[in-house]
Amino acid sequence: MEHLQAVVTGLGVGAVYALIAFGISLVYATSRTLNFAHGEVLTVGVFLALTAVFFDLPPWQGILIGIAGAVLLGVVLEKVVFTPLKRSPESLAWLLGLLIVGAVITNGSARIWGQSAYNAEQLGIGSALGLDHIFHWGDFIFPAIYVWLFV
Q1: Picking from 14-18, 27-31, 130-134, which range would have the lowest pLDDT averaged per residue?
Q2: Three-state secondary-structure class, residue 132
Q3: Strand 134-137 relative to strand 140-143: parallel, antiparallel, unpaired?
Q4: What is the mean pLDDT of the chain?
Q5: Which helix (H) or strand (E) holds 8?
Q6: 150 near 135, Cβ under 8 Å?
Q7: What's the CA gap between 18 and 73, in Å, rounded?
């Protein structure tokens, strides 16, 4: 039974990697740019969602705010940073620009939300979004976050 539980846990963690890979490939397919700031844009969306939830908005509204914020940031970055830097294809300026944007977003979010914002357990993210619930099915344990990842 322990091996089957490891499979369930592996599928849950694998779903996270699959979502990240899907996002990166979707951005590349549509813009022909390897967006090295992809994770940082998603991080800003999550922080916006958590901020909304901590201000007593319902979780579904927080999620919508986070999605809207991440989309808005992505559009601004595309228009202000990515497109101008891609105009000279022989240059690697776009690569350096993306790495700099990632560093700026990471440091900016640490300034806005604090360095402790990168510790999910300290923030209580699971309980804020109702994801700390555990489902039991026989001997198997399914954290609610795995269910949401598959959905």
Answers
A1: 130-134
A2: coil
A3: antiparallel
A4: 77
A5: helix 2-31
A6: no
A7: 22
